[in-house]
């Protein structure tokens, strides 16, 4: 859906096929990170999405307990949506978190994005249809599709095909593209088959004698589990490990484990179950073949620790979307689509590796048999475990992972000899060094610089002459390339970008910067669009 919206933003038509009639109503990922929220903002969706899920005043703390009704071991304090909004409103002009991370379950967001898609004139929604087969032609791809309910068959002709069809991708398999990387490792928790159970439990929050959390963990020698608050009232996602002998979720076992995690019996109903496997860090050996491209879980599978999987996929879509649009509209060069894999595959390794490391940290937490004893030995054990758990704060932040993606060395990036900041998962240093995310700036009227960027390329002008802007506009018009010129009258912005001019791509990465335009603007635009 996000790929279709990125194409729509540039006026390119797409057909969206999905076997089910609408997005699946089952909880999945619950973290939409700052970069993902910037993409939603760019597409006009951030405000709508921030209204979903938890109440605005609900804290997003992560709490660790021996049992949810017993001892609290550690608490990672994190703000409510209202507190985040207040922080953004008071932020300094060069503050980089224009869109704080959002704790909202994917099922709510998918439903909202789906409803928005239905209003977009360039997106032809074919939910309830299955892609049965496809083959490339001399100038496109022919796709054989089947309507699931009726069996009706059709052949669709398109310029390109994108497989966003998940970890079991049929598109990837037909291309004979394989995953490589780390498989599942056995460990105390998040090291074997897991089950995620959607439960309705109005008695749960009143039964927990601690300050409210968005996520509650149970940590003791007998059981490890965690539960996510979905709506702040009565809906939750409970996660626990399956037994090795389990082929299907055992509801009696899950019911007992929830009671053991809480420390008492309460009434609740199951809405559904979803089995999954943590501990993976897999990346496909190719992202593209000819006119067919893969996106999201079809090219990388994550362990969920850190919440990087969904967000990496949305960043894939932002990268691939404008490149497909450029090729359809004729302003993309012959190397443009090859740059998708070259730019995104290293990021897949970076992010899956970080998620794997965080999962290993979970497995290393010391859990003494005395943890639940009301004795000095038990108190000492709880202090030791709590100290280890208190270090997990960065798992729920990782701002360097969120905003620090760089495409250094890409053929689309025009380097200027600068040294980019180090890639630190937990720290983001804004830099306009070509290849990285365009640094954010709050303008004098408190609007975001990002809100002024165009859907195509944008030339940012800091104290630039009109003649320079006109030369770049003329070169873009000759290529049929969308370009917006934004004059930024802000001294701190000039310092942030360190040059008078900066060319920003549709996905908000800096392609080029300089104190004067090159003699041949057309050659520059050809370079940054794969010429």
Characterise the protein shown here:
- The structure is a single chain.
- Strand 3 (62-65) and strand 4 (72-76) form a beta hairpin.
- This protein has helices at residues 2-9, 34-42, 46-50, 81-89, 106-117, 170-174, 251-262, 308-329, 338-363, 376-389, 399-403, 466-479, 491-497, 521-528; strands at residues 14-18, 31-32, 62-65, 72-76, 102-103, 123-127, 129-136, 141-147, 153-158, 161-163, 179-182, 194-200, 215-219, 224-229, 235-241, 269-276, 281-284, 288-289, 292-294, 300-302, 457-461, 483-487, 501-504, 510-514.
- Helix content is 29%, strand content 22%.
- The strands form 7 sheets. The protein has a 7-stranded mixed sheet with strand order 4-3-13-14-15-12-16. Strands 22-21-23-24 form a 4-stranded mixed sheet, with helices on one face.
Helices and strands, with pairings:
Blueprint: H1 2-9, E1 14-18, E2 31-32, H2 34-42, H3 46-50, E3 62-65, E4 72-76, H4 81-89, E5 102-103, H5 106-117, E6 123-127, E7 129-136, E8 141-147, E9 153-158, E10 161-163, H6 170-174, E11 179-182, E12 194-200, E13 215-219, E14 224-229, E15 235-241, H7 251-262, E16 269-276, E17 281-284, E18 288-289, E19 292-294, E20 300-302, H8 308-329, H9 338-363, H10 376-389, H11 399-403, E21 457-461, H12 466-479, E22 483-487, H13 491-497, E23 501-504, E24 510-514, H14 521-528
Parallel strand pairs: 1-6, 3-13, 10-19, 21-22
Antiparallel strand pairs: 2-5, 3-4, 7-8, 8-9, 11-17, 12-15, 12-16, 13-14, 14-15, 17-20, 18-19, 21-23, 23-24
């Amino acid at each position: 859906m996000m790929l279709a919206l990125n194409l729509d933003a540039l006026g390119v038509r797409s057909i969206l096929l999905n076997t089910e009639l609408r997005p699946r109503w089952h909880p999945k990922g619950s973290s939409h990170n700052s970069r993902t929220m910037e993409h939603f903002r760019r597409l006009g969706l951030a405000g709508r999405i921030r209204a979903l899920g938890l109440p605005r005043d609900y804290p997003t703390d992560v709490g660790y307990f021996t049992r949810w009704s017993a001892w609290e071991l550690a608490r990672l304090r994190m703000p409510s949506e209202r507190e985040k909004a207040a922080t953004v409103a008071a932020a300094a002009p060069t503050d980089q978190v224009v869109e704080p991370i959002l704790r909202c379950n994917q099922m709510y967001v998918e439903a909202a994005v789906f409803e928005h898609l239905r209003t977009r004139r360039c997106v032809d929604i074919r939910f309830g249809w299955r892609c049965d087969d496809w083959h490339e032609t001399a100038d496109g791809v022919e796709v054989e599709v089947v309507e699931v309910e009726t069996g009706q068959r059709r052949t669709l002709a398109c310029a390109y095909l994108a497989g966003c069809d998940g970890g079991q991708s049929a598109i990837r398999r037909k291309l004979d593209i394989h995953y490589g990387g780390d498989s599942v490792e056995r460990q105390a928790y998040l090291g074997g088959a897991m089950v995620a159970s959607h439960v309705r439990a109005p008695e749960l929050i009143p039964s927990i004698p601690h300050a409210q959390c968005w996520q509650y963990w149970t940590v003791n020698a007998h059981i490890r589990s965690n539960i996510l608050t979905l709506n702040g009232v009565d809906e939750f996602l409970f996660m626990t490990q399956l037994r090795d002998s389990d082929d299907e979720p055992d509801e009696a076992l899950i019911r007992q484990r929830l009671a053991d995690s809480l420390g008492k019996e309460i009434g609740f109903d199951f809405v559904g179950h979803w089995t999954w496997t943590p501990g993976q860090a897999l990346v496909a050996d190719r992202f593209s073949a000819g006119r067919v491209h893969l996106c999201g879980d079809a090219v990388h599978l994550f362990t969920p620790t850190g919440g990087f999987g969904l967000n990496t996929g949305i960043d894939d879509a932002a990268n691939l979307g404008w490149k497909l649009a450029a090729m359809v509209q004729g302003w993309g060069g012959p190397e443009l689509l090859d740059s998708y894999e070259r730019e995104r595959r290293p990021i897949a390794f970076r992010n899956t590796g970080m998620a794997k490391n965080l999962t290993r940290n979970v497995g290393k937490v010391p859990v003494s048999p005395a943890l639940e004893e009301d004795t000095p030995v038990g108190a000492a054990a709880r202090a030791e475990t709590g100290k280890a758990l208190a270090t997990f704060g960065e798992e729920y932040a990782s701002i360097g992972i969120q905003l620090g993606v760089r495409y250094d060395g890409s053929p689309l990036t025009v380097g200027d000899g600068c040294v980019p900041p180090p890639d630190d998962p937990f720290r983001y240093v804004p830099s306009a060094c070509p290849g990285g995310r365009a640094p954010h700036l709050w303008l004098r009227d408190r609007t975001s610089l990002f809100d002024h960027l165009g859907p195509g390329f944008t030339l940012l002008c800091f104290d630039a002459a009109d003649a320079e802007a006109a030369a770049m506009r003329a070169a873009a018009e000759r290529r049929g390339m969308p370009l917006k010129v934004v004059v930024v009258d802000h001294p701190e912005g000039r310092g942030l970008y360190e040059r008078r001019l900066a060319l920003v791509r549709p996905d908000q990465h800096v392609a080029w910067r300089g104190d004067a335009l090159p003699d041949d603007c057309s050659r520059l635009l050809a370079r940054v669009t794969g010429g």
